[in-house]
Amino acid sequence: MGTNKAFVRVGGSPIIERIIARVRPLGDQVILVTNSCDEYEYLGLPIFTDLIPGKSTLGGLYTAIAQSQGDYTLVVSCDQPFLNPDLLRYLIGLREGYDVVVPLNRDHYPQSMQAVYGKGCLDPIRRRLEADQLKVIGFFAEVRVREVRGDEIDRFDPLRQSFINVNTPDDLAVAQALAAQLEADER
């Protein structure tokens, strides 16, 4: 994108503000994990830098789980402007008895940056980080995973809009069009 995706405007506001508005009602604590803290200070949230620097998304996930005050942490990325609070609430509600609750997209691939993680993930993730094995779902075989599939997701988000992320200018154009459509539908 050539810029910090979190601050790209979709539907009139930065994606990060859209995300915070959707997740704030879902729990007691909202934290940010970033290595560019100054940009996010205006949001007034606790901000943490990677506990193990240079380990990509898996390092950020590890930091989020470790810094969270709760036994479980809902983790979302900063580039998903259409998160569905009802789907997220459903994921949170499935957490008991699992270390990870993760929705699968239509291609049956885990949406690991829109999932719930328990503290039991910390040791398996740490081992992966230390081995420089940074694939986010690489540790899933070592923990109890609850996959959330088709019909379950369809109850909340049949068009899978919550899985749209903004990585390219083309993605941004799609997101802008969808935001305009959703705004028009609400009128």
Protein model, in words:
- With 187 residues, the chain is an alpha/beta fold.
- The protein has one domain (5-186): Spore Coat Polysaccharide Biosynthesis Protein SpsA, Chain A (Alpha-Beta Complex), CATH 3.90.550.
- It has 7 helices and 8 strands, in the order ββαβαβαβαββαβαα.
- The strands form 3 sheets. The protein has a 4-stranded mixed sheet with strand order 5-7-6-8, with helices on both faces.
- Strand 3, helix 2 (37-40) and strand 4 form a beta-alpha-beta unit.
- The longest helix is centred in the last third of the chain and has 18 residues, at 169-186.
- The model has no long low-confidence stretch (mean pLDDT 95).
Low-confidence stretches: none
- Overall morphology: globular
Number of distinct beta strands = 8
> Termini separation (Å)?
31 Å
Radius of gyration: 16 Å
The main sheet comes to: 4 strands, mixed
Topology-level CATH name: Spore Coat Polysaccharide Biosynthesis Protein SpsA, Chain A
Name of the CATH class: Alpha Beta
Main-sheet strand order equals: 5-7-6-8
CATH architecture: Alpha-Beta Complex
Give the integer mean of the pLDDT values: 95
Strand-residue proportion: 5-15%
**Total domain modules:** 1
